[in-house]
């Protein structure tokens, strides 16, 4: 579902009118998470595919396919696919952060398309000033092309989005309920999840879609969110297990107790959340190399320290156990 408003008007007009022959070589679409960047890029791809050879690829797939091609000795085929389209759309380029070889390959892809007079469009979650992880050459070139923002939606935008959702589902919902949802949701995917979850809750509890039922649903949702193995929840549980404050784990303090708790948290996040080292680094405001080093140090320490091994087992058991067992704790 697409909501047209002031926060995305410039981007919407740009990509509705996008014509490769008249466009800048590179176009960067940027903005916060969950505001419709990918939706806009996919629509642009669908509109252009009958005019030009066009390839849409998520950066995560780019990374995986590049690694596979390098391993299997099929890089020439991989490069032919990426470097010959008239337009290459690479979405979610923030995923490349910390992946040195993939960034280098992307840079050469960029150069090859430029030499062939192709076009490249990139989707980025963040601000152009945060592109430094791509290296000076590539980041400056992306910033030097056409740069198009999608801004953060206003509370009124979020409310209108929820109204559209309710209308599309043939639901009659009071504005008071929708306003509370709009306050709760940070972006459109969250608003969609909130609406769908509330409908399921109402059906399950045989409740009306009213304010009282929404308050009960939000209470249940927050409880369930607290049980999810997110970095924040894992760090909070590590704080409980070690007696080291969560704030200290996030800090730069390097006392043995804090360092050990931080290593336990990093190992737990990597094991339970399956996040990459750069993603964990972003959560703790540390470089991916220091995260990797901490992970490896903990692997060695846990083999020698029974108390540390016991805390790790307790951490893993907590997030892997049924919800009713967590409640009893």
Automatic annotation (TrEMBL):
Q: Which GO terms describe its cellular component?
A: plasma membrane
Gene Ontology MF terms in the entry: ATP binding; DNA replication origin binding; lipid binding
Gene3D superfamilies found in the cross-reference section:
1.10.1750.10, P-loop containing nucleotide triphosphate hydrolases
Q: Known Pfam families for this protein?
A: Bac_DnaA, Bac_DnaA_C
Q: Which residues cross the membrane?
A: none
Tell me the ranges covered by the AAA+ ATPase domain, including all copies. 23-154
InterPro entries xref list = AAA+_ATPase, Chromosome_initiator_DnaA-like, DnaA_C, DnaA_dom, P-loop_NTPase, Trp_repressor/repl_initiator
SUPFAM superfamilies the UniProt entry points to: P-loop containing nucleoside triphosphate hydrolases (SSF52540), TrpR-like (SSF48295)
GO term, biological process aspect, one:
DNA replication initiation
Which CDD domains does the protein's record reference? AAA, Bac_DnaA_C
Q: Which residues form the Chromosomal replication initiator DnaA C-terminal domain?
A: 230-298
Q: Keywords in UniProt for this one?
A: ATP-binding, Cytoplasm, DNA replication, DNA-binding, Lipid-binding, Nucleotide-binding
What range does the record give for the signal peptide?
none
The entry assigns this protein to a family as follows: Belongs to the DnaA family.
User: What's the protein called, per UniProt?
Assistant: Chromosomal replication initiator DnaA domain protein
């Amino acid at each position: 579902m697409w909501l047209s408003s002031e926060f995305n008007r410039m981007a919407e007009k740009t990509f509705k009118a996008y014509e490769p022959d008249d466009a800048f070589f590179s176009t960067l679409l940027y903005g916060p998470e969950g505001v419709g960047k990918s939706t806009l890029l996919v629509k642009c791809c669908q509109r252009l595919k009958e005019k030009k050879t066009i390839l849409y690829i998520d950066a995560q797939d780019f990374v995986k396919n590049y690694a596979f091609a390098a391993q299997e000795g099929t890089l020439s085929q991989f490069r032919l696919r990426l470097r010959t389209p008239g337009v290459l759309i690479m979405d979610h380029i923030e995923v490349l952060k910390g992946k040195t070889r993939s960034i280098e390959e992307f840079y050469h892809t960029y150069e090859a398309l430029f030499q062939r007079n192709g076009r490249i469009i990139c989707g980025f979650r963040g601000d152009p000033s945060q592109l430094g992880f791509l290296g000076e050459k590539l980041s400056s070139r992306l910033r030097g092309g056409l740069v198009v923002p999608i801004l953060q939606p206003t509370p009124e935008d979020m409310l209108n989005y929820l109204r559209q959702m309710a209308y599309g589902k043939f639901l009659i919902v009071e504005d008071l309920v929708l306003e509370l949802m709009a306050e709760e949701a940070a972006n459109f995917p969250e608003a969609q999840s909130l609406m769908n979850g509330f409908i399921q809750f109402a059906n399950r509890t045989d409740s009306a879609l009213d304010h009282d039922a929404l308050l009960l649903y939000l209470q249940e949702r927050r409880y369930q969110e607290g049980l999810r193995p997110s970095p924040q929840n894992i760090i909070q549980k590590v704080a409980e297990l070690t007696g080291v404050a969560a704030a200290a784990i996030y800090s730069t303090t390097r006392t043995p107790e804090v360092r050990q708790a931080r290593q336990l948290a990093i190992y737990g996040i990597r094991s339970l959340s399956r996040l990459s080292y750069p993603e964990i680094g972003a959560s703790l405001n540390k470089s991916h190399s220091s995260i990797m080093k901490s992970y490896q140090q903990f692997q060695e320490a846990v083999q020698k320290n029974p108390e540390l091994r016991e805390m790790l087992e307790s951490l893993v058991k907590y997030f892997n156990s049924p919800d009713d067992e967590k409640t009893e704790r």
